[in-house]
Design brief:
With 120 residues, this protein is an all-alpha fold. 90% of the residues lie in helices and 0% in strands. The protein has 4 helices and no strands. Helix 2 runs antiparallel to helix 3 and helix 3 packs antiparallel against helix 4. The longest helix is centred in the middle third of the chain and has 31 residues.
């Protein structure tokens, strides 16, 4: 049982290490990730400053994190497409455009949540 727990703890530690490495790599090369992070920091500060219900605050914070996750996934798609080929290809363009659209939809959801929370 101890061996199983140690193995799971090691797996979890590796997951944390790899996730931090991914964040650092994206942070270093992706201006949009840095921009979305600043927007999220401002959004989170506002969510805590305003008198919001806990559910409203949770929604705002969760959707902000979803935008960051979408941006990281978009970065991953772009990196893989660029690694496979630097040639212009309709499928590569579609993959990159769909990744970008995913970020846009997540951001739209976050913005819409703010509108609904503020308007009531």
């Amino acid at each position: 049982m101890q061996a199983l727990l140690r193995a799971e703890a090691r797996r979890f530690a590796n997951t944390v290490i790899w996730s931090v490495a991914g964040w650092r790599a994206a942070w270093a090369s992706e201006k949009t990730l840095r921009q979305w992070t600043l927007v999220n920091a401002a959004s989170a500060a506002l969510a805590f400053w305003l008198d919001l219900a806990p559910g409203e605050r949770a929604l705002i914070l969760a959707l902000g994190l979803l935008v960051l996750a979408a941006e990281l996934l978009n970065t991953a798609i772009e990196e893989v497409v660029d690694y496979i080929s630097t040639d212009t290809h309709p499928k590569a363009k579609k993959a990159k455009d769909c990744g970008s659209a995913g970020v846009a939809l997540a951001a739209l959801a976050a913005g819409l949540a703010w509108v609904v929370v503020l308007v009531g």
